[in-house]
What we know:
Layout: H1 2-25, H2 33-57, H3 61-65, H4 71-95, H5 98-121
Amino acid sequence: MRLRLLLINSVLPLALCLFALTLLAIKPVPLQIWRWCSGVLLAVTIPFLGTVRRRFGSLAPGELRSGQANRGVFLFFAVIGSLSLLLQLYNLAALDAFWAFFVGIAFSLLAAMFQFMVMILRPPTEKK
Length: 128
């Protein structure tokens, strides 16, 4: 599960940046460009989040206690990620600003960096 999160949180910002750069290359630049980018971010992220939530919810209590997953960290990133998605929704509906779209990209990158850091720093667990 952790590798899938790391992969998605690393690839998603790259894909979103490439999408935005492609739209910026169109002459004249579309007026609603940041709304479109936020819409694509929402369309890609929401289905992925549903699968992550189902997988995390299916973990046995022993797996949670053994340190394979940390409920506090999961909830922290869930709250911050939800705020980021609400900002994307607001950007789609009314704001149409680059900075709001960039918050979504930055959140994915920060989540990926945290996951990578946990993979490196946490000692390997022995399987029974």
